[in-house]
Design a protein that fits this description.
5-stranded mixed sheet, 17 strands, 8-stranded mixed sheet, binds manganese (II) ion, tRNA-splicing ligase RtcB, alpha+beta, binds ligand LQESDW3C, 11 helices
């Protein structure tokens, strides 16, 4: 069967040819039906910002080690007027999520997993994982926003985190057992085992984001951290096509279009967006961009930025946000300049009628692991 390849881009879009080559190479794998490159696509072990539809086979290496990674938006119950940025920064500088008591009784699906993984619950992880206080800066669809219970004038918390060392363990186990990127044929030994482990990792990541949100909110003095939006951007899910055939959507840095509104994250120095995906995006593997996507590789960031802009400017960004991060290296690696322009990613999706806008969010304080 011929694989359909679709790349969502326009002339102005910033997409490296190497990312497209990676997508085309993955699209050649057996059982591949459709490959979609979203506007945030960039190079990874397999391309990030992409969705792949297969028939009769699942590829754990496409999903990678951070199974279940996603974005969750929580209400905090704090009025923007009462949120004093400098005070929150000072409080968060003392927060050590790694040193907190593990708490996993609240997730029954995870009862049987090893203690070493349970201990990681409630920790955010390194790299670009974050917990970010945000305010609504522009409303595009008032009705949709009030249906979500989101109010202008209040502070929200966006948490981006995944399944920590548990996801890594799952990937290694299945790759070792099944010889790398060969994939798991539906119906053979190993297929159901991966799907069960994958399901647990998705619960793990979701639980993790909830515990992080509750710890961060408690730490700054609010008992509220109510989940409003949740989306998983690294994972596999199945659906039936119009002929009743079961197909598998692999999402690697791609948000689902069929779970309601989604937060598309920008960077700690730019806006993020709440968007409503359009219905029946089957040509796009029922997926939309999950973020802005990297423009620069991690290792090139410090060299590019160090002598060009001041340390103060690296910490801030277009919208003058604030970062709490004990790892100096990460401040460069995760600088807003290292990411593509979120406005362009959003414009590309609007141009294809993939989404409508609900609201945009400004970062106030970003906590990185
Ligand atoms: N609002 C923020 N968005 C951020 C930050 N750091 C990264 N990002 C965005 O999130 C996605 C996540 O990428 P993933 O492939 O690792 O899941 C990334 O593309 C950026 O657009 C931040 O500090 N704040
Ligand atoms: Mn992620």
């Amino acid at each position: 069967m011929e694989t359909t390849i679709k790349i969502v881009k326009r002339e102005k879009s910033w997409i490296e040819s190497s990312a497209i080559e990676q997508l085309e190479s993955v699209a050649k794998l057996g059982g591949m039906v459709r490959a979609v490159g979203l506007p945030d696509i960039h190079v990874g072990k397999t391309p990030v910002g992409a969705a792949f539809v297969t028939k009769g086979i699942v590829y754990p290496h496409i999903i990678g080690n951070d199974v279940g990674c996603g974005m969750s938006l929580f209400s905090t119950g704090i009025a923007r007027k009462k949120f004093k940025v400098s005070k929150v920064v000072k409080k968060l500088e003392k927060l050590q999520l790694d040193a907190m008591e593990p708490c996993c009784e609240i997730i029954p699906e995870l009862e049987d997993i090893d203690e070493q993984f349970k201990r990681k619950l409630g920790t955010i992880g390194s790299g670009n994982h974050f917990a970010e206080f945000q305010e609504i800066c522009e409303v595009h669809d008032n009705d949709e926003l009030s249906k979500l219970g989101i109010k202008r004038g209040e502070v929200y918390l966006l948490v981006h985190s995944g399944s920590r060392s548990y996801g890594e363990h799952i990937l290694r186990k299945h790759i070792e057992k099944n010889m790398g990127g060969k994939g798991l044929l539906q119906g053979i030994e190993g297929f159901n085992e991966y799907m069960d482990d994958h399901k647990r990792a998705v619960f793990f990541a979701m639980g993790n984001r909830m515990i992080v949100a509750s710890s961060v909110c408690n730490h700054i003095g609010t008992s509220e951290s109510r989940l409003i939006l949740n989306s998983v951007h690294n994972g596999v899910s199945s659906y039936r096509d119009e002929f009743g055939e079961e197909l598998f959507i692999h999402r690697k840095g791609a948000a689902p279009s069929d779970v309601g509104c989604i937060v598309v994250a920008g960077s700690r120095g730019s806006k993020s967006y709440i968007v409503k995906p359009s219905e029946n995006l089957s040509d796009y593997a029922f997926s939309i961009s999950h973020g802005a996507g990297r423009k620069w590789s991690r290792f090139s960031c410090k060299e590019r930025l160090e002598n060009v802009i001041s340390k103060r400017a690296v910490r801030g960004g277009d919208v003058g946000s604030n970062i709490v991060c004990s790892d100096k290296k990460l401040i460069y690696e995760e600088a807003p300049q290292a990411y593509k322009d979120i406005e362009r990613v959003i414009e590309d999706m609007l141009h294809e009628n993939m989404i409508t806008l609900v609201a945009s969010l400004n970062p106030l304080v970003t906590y990185k692991g």
